[in-house]
Amino acid sequence: MLIKTEKRTQETEVVGNIYCNMCGRQLKTDKHGYYEDFVHIEKRWGYTSEKDGKEQSVDICEHCWDKFTAGFAIKDK
After folding, report:
1. Is residue 13 part of a domain?
2. Separation between Cα atoms, residue 56 and residue 31, nearest integer Å
3. How many separate domains does the chain show?
């Protein structure tokens, strides 16, 4: 029996640095490589918007999220 093998290289995408879009601070990682908690928002604007087809994404640290949501007219639960 002849078993043929081949070598393959697989690319892996990894997270680099994460920055808060509101304050600009770089989010820290713990000793295990986990990032401090943050909010990630992605939006693809629809045809009823002046931003039709535009895609946007933001990351917001917990401190800035608290400041952001403090201004909501309808508070979260």
Report:
1. no
2. 31
3. 1
Contacts of 64 (CB under 8 A, 6+ apart): 20, 22, 23
Q: What is the pLDDT of residues 35-51, one digit of tens each?
A: 999 999 999 999 999 99
Inter-CA distances, 77 with 28, 34, 65, 69, 72, Å? 28, 27, 15, 11, 12
Predicted confidence at residue 15, as pLDDT, reads 77
Nearest C-alpha neighbor of 20 from the set 11, 12, 10, 28: 28
Helices (H), 12-59: none
- Predicted TM-score (pTM) of this structure: 0.73
